[in-house]
Design brief:
The protein is an alpha+beta fold. It folds into two domains: 192 residues, no CATH class; 92 residues, no CATH class. It has ten helices and eight strands.
Amino acid sequence: MICLGSPQDSPTRLEAEAAQLRIAQLFGADFIRRYPDGIVISELEYMGRTTSAPNQPGPLRIPGSPRLNRVLEALASDFRNWVRDRDYRKCDALGIARDGAYAELLEVTTIDNAGSAINQVAVKLAILRETVSRIHNLSVDWRPTLWRPGPDQLFYPLPSADQGEVRYLCYSPTYRLPAPPGVILYEVHVVKRPRVPVPVQVPEDAAERIRRAARANRPTQQSAESWARQFLADNPTVGLALRGLAIAVGVVLLIAALILIFDPVPGDEAACAAAAMWLVRLATAA
């Protein structure tokens, strides 16, 4: 994992939501792969049917899944703080198997808030096991998930209002702390883009191939990894050149040079930064 730039003291509200939704997406894909007929609920989805919904929102319902619906009804009824009306508990992500016999939860937060997240997991599991299951006579095996983002899922570019910087989510603190099951930690990193031409001479042939490939199929944030993999598979000599440059001049300067080669139009900076980071990461890992 290439971890660049300096971590910021605190993410913005939108960055925190992006960090949570990105993990919910990745965890959800893994959970559904293991439990194909299950459901994964993010905090924001759960809030839409409870805290922020009308006075009588009713539980989420999945047609044709009576056991799963029984669990969802129990959550809507008794997964709460009991401090004030409709004061619902919400997991950042909660996966429930279709038969309602197994469920995993997780919390996503910054490394500075790790202690609070660890406590939240313990408290929420206690409510689920000792209150929700007991009151509703459920036999759900509530667990903190063992899932963590893989090596190719540890960073995710963010949009930035400042064209002189690249911002991205970094989930490597999950392993660095390390975090216990059910807790995913992240930082927001910032890499400053030089305002003068970067003193890194990328071979002209390599630079022209990158430009042509980007013009033919401009990468997006979502496609940056697959774009970089395909490009390096089609151009193995460029990968060798990038690997040598990364050793000679350093990863940060090389990524900055590649971003300039992409020459992103306004609005494409994050996608181009993601493609550049993936090119260097895959080239140096080869």
